[in-house]
Structure formats: C-alpha cells, structure tokens
DNA sequence: GGGCGCATGTAATGAGTTACATGATTGA
DNA sequence: TCAATCATGTAACTCATTACATGCGCCC
C-alpha cells in the first residue's frame, strides 16, 4: 500500500502524468522507494479504475499524448486512510545481508576481513551518496536524514564488528560447534 | 540467493530434514529471515535437483517419513560462492514506512503526534522482543546484536523526529508549498 | 474423541520485475 | 544520422505467499 500512498500523496499536491511522477520519484525519492515504471503505470491504472484518481488526456506540442491524473474526493479519503495506517504502524526490517554473518567462521579470518572490507566500501559509498543529496524543503528532508542516520549506524556497526572478529591466521574449521542446533 | 545460503549453511553443519530446518529458523532466526514452509520445501527440492544437496528418506518411530538432506561437494562449492558474495556485498535498505513522512503536514499536528506515538509503541515492542532473545553462541549472536542496535537507532531517531514536529494547534493545510515539484 | 504436533507437499494467487514494442522529437 | 528523450504500455517471468490437502500419533 505504500506505493499507492506515495502516488496519491504526490498527485494530491499537484496533478501530474505518469512519466512526470516517475521522474520526480527517481530524482528525489530513489533511496526511499524503488518503484519501476510498469508498476507505476499499472497502479495508476488500477487507482483510476477504483475512482481514486481521474484521468485526462493532454498534449504538449508535438510530444506524445499524456495521461494527466488528479486526486478525486474518494482518493483523498483513501489517501488519509493509507497515511494514518502508515504513520501508526512499524514494520520491522529484515537484514537479508546478515545471513552470511551466521557462517563467517566457514572462511579464513583473513578472507573474511577482506570480504567485509568490500562490504564496508559499498556501504561507505552509499553513505556518501546519501549525504550528497541536496537538501529538500519540507518533510522530505526527514526521509533523507533518516537514511543518512541509518547508514552511519550501519557503518559504525560494521567497523565494530570487524574489530571483534579473530585477526589471527587460524585455519577455517569445517564444522565448528558454536552454533547450537540441538533442541 | 540469501535463502539458499541460509539453508546450505545450516545443512553444512548438520544434516536435517525440512521440518527440522523450519523449526530452527522460526525459533532462532525469525527476526533475520521470514522464509515460509512452502518456500523452504521448494528450495530444498530445487537444490536437490541441482545436486547441491542429497536427499535420503528416513523414518523415526511411526512418524511420517522424513526427507533428510545433506550437503554435497557441489553444494559446498555453491555455499562458498554464495557466502563470499554475501559478505562482500551491501544492499541498501529502503524504508517503505518513511513514505508517510513526506506527507505528515497533511494531518493536524496533534493527530500526527498521536499516530507516531502508536508507531513508537510498535517499535519499542519490537526492540523489547529483540532484547529478550536469549544469547546464542557463535556468530548468530552478531545478527541479534545488529538487530538490537538498529532498533535502538530507530527509536532514537523517531523520538528526535517527534520533537522536531510542530506542537502547536495549527490547522492542516491542503496543499503546502514546501515540497518542491518544480523542475 | 478432539485438537495439536509431525511431516510433506500442491494449487492458486499476487506483487513486482525485466524485456520488449512503439513512434515521434530533439540534440550532438 | 545516431542516440537520447518523451510517453505509454504489454507480455512473460520470477519469486514468494496463502490456502488447502493428507494422515497418523500423542495427549488431555
């Protein structure tokens, strides 16, 4: 429902056509959502069917015709419902990347540290990118700051993790007994 | 690929049947992955076809027969490949919940704060649950700690956010101009 | 005797992605 | 003239989920 909320919220402020929406999302909100073009067009179509938004065809110069969408009253109701649900709820995140951590003793400490070094570089790059986003007026700024905060915490955590790993040249063991499988 | 890595990694330490795997994951790793039973059975089947794991039927008492899986040599190779890719990479997270933040000025400040209070309660509950997980030996502990760290940071961020929101009784505005849509 | 645990699956569904298709216009 | 931009979609596919199906044993 978050994607619907996003599209409704943007259309609520200003009527737009699909291409324009995608461009804005790509430019400003790319680190918050990764909605793809066919998905957006599909959702716009679905919400138009549902009566949440109204569609008007328009033409600018000799460009292809555009489907301009604007929020309806039903759409406003849906928007408020979705927004309230969004603000009130919290969905816990799953760190899929962490799965590998459960098996770090399967490789040599040296290789593990090298690999985590690569991870750290990727993370630092993401952080630099988030920091480089120019400030936006209004509450969008909160989203950017949240992302920066999160990435900083991740980097700090990863650095701390690396210091806690064994630095010695011990060999990798095939089946360490330190993972409790017993019931 | 992270789910495959997880299953391979567990089978690498100890051969198990599907039900046993799911039980372990539900009990110990439920906050790290949310793999469901049909998915696990499907993946086990697929990896058996691929030759990564070998299947043996076994029976305990008068219980239903079990498909016990163990890692093959090809599976070991696949495991190491997946593990290296996992440790070296970093996939940036998208906070779908943040989308609502872009539109917080659509509701009255009072209601916004009330809704965010509900969010905070859900978050605090998740944190309490993560903290209550009994310590696990070995590197699984890292995953738990990471989750706790992350939830703590989230809580701190949310608290700070609430203080930065307007506390006054201003009316909600229909179309605030503080979101730059211009190009 | 009724429900839960054990143990494995199938079928239907859904959400979202990639790849493809179209066709004019604008800029290098 | 060649690529990129504008603007909209369709079709096929992947991945994962929910709901359903089965059937015996164990415990209260």
Note the main sheet of chain A. 3 strands, antiparallel
- Tally of DSSP helical segments of chain A: 6
Write the CATH fold name of the largest domain in chain A. Arc Repressor Mutant, subunit A
* Helix content class of chain A: 55-70%
Tell me the Rg of chain A in angstroms.
Answer: 23 Å
The fraction of residues in strands of chain A falls at: 5-15%
CATH-level-2 architecture of the largest domain in chain A: Orthogonal Bundle
Q: What structural class is derived from the secondary structure elements of chain A?
A: mainly alpha
Series of secondary-structure elements of chain A, N-terminal to C-terminal: HEHHEEHHH
Keywords:
55% helix, homodimer, Arc Repressor Mutant, subunit A, mainly alpha, DNA-binding, 183 residues, three-stranded antiparallel β-sheet
Layout of SSEs?
Two copies of one chain form a homodimer.
Chain A: H1 2-13, E1 16-17, H2 18-28, H3 37-49, E2 53-58, E3 66-71, H4 73-88, H5 109-132, H6 140-164
Antiparallel strand pairs in A: 1-3, 2-3
The structure holds a DNA duplex (28 and 28 nucleotides).
Q: If you had to describe this structure to a student in words, what would you say it looks like?
A:
The first copy, chain A, has 183 residues and is mainly alpha-helical. The first copy, chain A, folds into two domains: 87 residues, Winged helix-like DNA-binding domain superfamily/Winged helix DNA-binding domain (Arc Repressor Mutant, subunit A, Orthogonal Bundle), CATH 1.10.10; 84 residues, no CATH class. A three-stranded antiparallel β-sheet of chain A has the order 1-3-2. Chain A is elongated. The C terminus of chain A is likely disordered. At the A-B interface, α1, α4, α5 and α6 of A face α1, α4, α5 and α6 of B. Chain A binds a DNA duplex (28 and 28 nucleotides) through α3.
